[in-house]
Amino acid sequence: MEKLNERTAGAPTSPFYDEMFDEKGVRKHYSKADHVLSRMTIEERANRQNRLNSRLLEEGITFTLAQPDQAEALERTIPFDLVPRIIPADEWEIIEQGTRQRVRALNAFIADIYHEQCILKDGLVPRRMVMGNRYFRTEMMRLPVPGGTYITTSGIDLVRDDKGQYFVLEDNLRSPSGFSYVFKSRSIMTHDFPEMYFNYSVRGIDRTLQDFRSALRNLAPNDKGEPVMALLTPGSFNSAYFEHTFLAQQLGLTLVEGRDLVCRDNKIYIRGIDGLRKVDVLYRRIDDDFLDPLSFRPDSMLGVPGLMNAYRFGNITIANAPGTGVADDKAIYTFVPEMIRYYLNERPILNNVPTYLMSRPEEREFVLERLEEMVVKETSLSGGYGMLIGPSSTEWERELFAAKILENPDNYIAQPTVKLSTSPVSVDGHLVSRHIDLRVFALMDGRNVHVLPGGLTRVAMKEGSLVVNSSQGGGCKDTWVLSV
């Protein structure tokens, strides 16, 4: 990627859509940011960048990164960039409406497949893709869910193509991560870069925490004025443990591990010095497989024996509901536009990235002939794992993936390589272009869907890379939605 002019004036010469620049220079909504950045020397930008990242470390905002060549994982901060992503109000309105629409349709789909299965009977989604899905839970069949809300929290990943149009890349519905980095990014920018932040009228994000707590509280299976709510974490070794502690503190949830909970008479209790305290709502940050060793993986040490029985008896609510993973499977993703038309009778506001199902012979043949142009993904994996990025792959890697596809085509989808939009980032004080995406967070409370204004902009910190995941070394930016 080309280094930008040190004054940041002038557009970068690249085939990608740049968030800050167009062919005429700095985009209008970035002019104030450009003014601040252009008055700083390289050394000043480098020092400011170091100060921002020092704040992350001081506040313990870390991420545990697994190293394939090392026995122990490394705890580090996610690289945070001082150049914000700025989204105009009219642009955000489309994103917000499209996210709401998508979450409503996905929730309707999950409710349908665990009850009437109308979409399967009508042949819009192949039955085998749902019933044979590794995330489909027969334990959820015909089970009533409070308020019909299966997806309390969701993270919808958006990318922008070379024309500046937004597309949905993935839906994250099980236990999407990144909420905490949105709030910490905003705190750092307002505290350590006020001369830029207060130049803009930026929509606030604090209300989201109230909406989050309200959405959980409204899931309580009884009319208690103040239900007992807990966040179930795998423990301090988990890569997102900082986020678990942050959300528990901010939302007023008790942070628990499986060993802190016990089942008695089909009710779940927190063990404490003063005895047992019944839990009404459990916001879980562990996968279905580990929730309950009596229902799922018998070797799980993370969950609570008897949790699913308590859930079946209506004595506790689990958010997100078990079994939601069917709808964030990358093969099921291809059918979301049809879900929107089917359940909502609406046209999709946000389109999918064009996607090929390897289970379809003609699409499989088309992709195998063009692997060097494609991104191939294993349908059940996330976090940037199980992927082939064709343009940067070797012939050996393409041959390996071709064999995997032919051996088990149902496990893979392929997409053309999207020319992800770019944004300036500060590297040693120099402003250079890097690829970015946007994770938009939504909270569902009954029929209402609240979308957090801005979300998490993730950055591929490595030059030329398209992989933005923090587990793969990606960074993040504060994301500002302008109120006018």
TrEMBL record:
Signal peptide: none annotated. Residues 84-460 form the Circularly permuted ATP-grasp type domain. SUPFAM superfamilies: Glutathione synthetase ATP-binding domain-like. It comes from the Bacteria. This is Circularly permuted type 2 ATP-grasp protein.
